[in-house]
């Protein structure tokens, strides 16, 4: 990070999963409930982050994830915010996602 910022981190309740749908799939209704959910479409796939219990049988998914909230807002010019939080957690035995979803004001 280039500026000093106080970082606040909290853990969301529940077991989360990352699911993969076929390219061009519409956003699934089963994913859009709970404190955090994200649907991302990209060439070759549609990815879903949601509570593990929402993922239907037969959908390719990996569960067992905790969801962390890094409270914002953060100025867009700042860099290294996620690294400043995730690197120390990794050193304490926590694994971190390769692709955390973010909103305009919060990193999840």
UniProtKB/TrEMBL annotation:
InterPro entries for this protein = A9CJY8-like_N (IPR049447), ACT-like_dom_sf (IPR045865)
Q: Which residues form the signal peptide?
A: none
- Ranges for domain A9CJY8-like N-terminal come to 14-57
Name of the protein described by the UniProt record:
A9CJY8-like N-terminal domain-containing protein
Q: What organism is this sequence from?
A: Deinococcus carri
